[in-house]
Amino acid sequence: MYEGPLQRLIDELSRLPGIGHKSAQRIAFHLLSIEDTDARRLGHSILDLRDQIGHCTRCFNVTANEECAICLDARRDESVVCVVERPQDIVVIERTNEYRGRYHVLGGSLSPIQGIGPDQLRIPELRRRVEEEQIREFIIATNPTMEGDATAMYLAREFKPLGIMVSRLASGLPVGGDLDYADELTLGRALVGRSEM
Amino acid sequence: MLRHDRGIVLRSYSFGEADRIVVLLSPHNGKLRTVAKGVRKTKSRIGGRLESFIDVDLVLYEGRNLDIINQVSIRNTHAGMRSELDRVTAASTMAEGVDAVAQEDEPSVALFELLSVGLSVLDTGPAHPDLVTAFLLQLAAVIGLAPSLDVCAGCGRDTGLDRFSFGAGGVVCESCRPDGAVRLRRGLTAYLSQLAGSDLHSLAPADDEFSGEAMGVVRRFMEFHLERRFSSLAVLGS
């Protein structure tokens, strides 16, 4: 047990994901040894994060403004919306440089067993966007898990009757992997979704 | 130390940077709570084998708190059911019910067989409207909670049984009727009794007059005795 602020910082750091007591103690002692300006910059970054970052009112990406940079970018195709579970997923898709449409962050996926239904996700907001914007296609990029698949099926069932084209990211073998290590479910999907050469 | 086991995945949730806690039902050891390391990474060799409702053979080694999954091979993916939301919801209710009653370190052969049959039925075609109702009634029987449907749960008489008491554990006669006993539609107890004794693979065609009410009664009965709500049924307004 350490004195006052040092122990308080260790306790707070230990509450962060992936950081145990030992790591928290190492980080706290590191912060004690660095320059005063560096420590203050870190402190201000945390405060600024809490004060300035919110969710885009249209797509629910994280942003420091009312709308995020992607929603404000007039060069992006507003008729195509990629539906993702979390804001972090947007960054991953942007890194591919293959997608020029917009996004919608659901805030999770349907999980019947955990009691997470459509109303706990941002599906009503997505329905509102369909009414207000000229959307013609959804690309559903939820995780390839049972919950992600259930979400995709629910969205297809709800939005296809409204004339929206609904597609799902392909599922299959990872680039650079060995075929004999693939599991049956993944390989089965890769076969179903094979493409013509 | 390494050991071999078998299990059906009931549910899983994220743990740490890229791990998952996977909860399975083993026929020999009941509920297994295990850790699958690194399975959320796309290059994981076992992640796809540990999705919900998959029946797997496992090689586990003992961790400090939870067993760690070392190898997995699939017995049955139950992939057919994943193509339809109603079937996924029905499977979720089955898994949720089993998860609520299964105990750790306790042989659960009958429970495992029941779940295995229920998932196989869902795998082969659209969900029968009474499948989940019949499954929950049979689940209650496996754990010794079967509602009394043919004789009064209080005195054992077999006439004048037009009310159902969740607390008393089944149909009751007028003189045994506790507060809160509900009046059932005539013929519903016979319908429930038939579902409780049916093979899940060959359920008789559903009767629209009884099907919804039968589900409501069984759901309330199970929720009363398990002291928990079925989240999966609430989610999609079933």
What labels describe this entry?
heterodimer; A: 197 residues; alpha/beta; four-stranded parallel sheet; two-stranded antiparallel sheet; 8 helices; 13% strand; globular; B: 238 residues; alpha+beta; OB fold (Dihydrolipoamide Acetyltransferase, E2P); de novo design (two linked rop proteins); 2 domains; five-stranded mixed β-barrel; three-stranded antiparallel sheet; 6 helices; 33% helix
Care to describe what's here?
The complex is a heterodimer of chains A (197) and B (238). Chain A has helices at residues 4-14, 21-33, 36-52, 69-72, 87-95, 123-132, 146-159, 184-192, and strands at residues 54-55, 62-63, 77-84, 101-105, 137-140, 165-168. Chain A has 197 residues and is of the alpha/beta class. In chain A, strands 4-3-5-6 form a four-stranded parallel beta sheet. In chain A, strands 1-2 form a two-stranded antiparallel ribbon. In chain A, helix 1 (4-14) packs across helix 2. The mean pLDDT of chain A is 92. Chain B has a five-stranded mixed β-barrel with strand order 1-2-3-5-4. Chain B has helices at 85-101, 109-124, 131-142, 188-196, 208-226, 231-235, and strands at 2-15, 19-26, 30-36, 55-61, 67-76, 163-165, 170-172, 182-183. Chain B has six helices and eight strands; from the N terminus they run βββββαααβββααα.
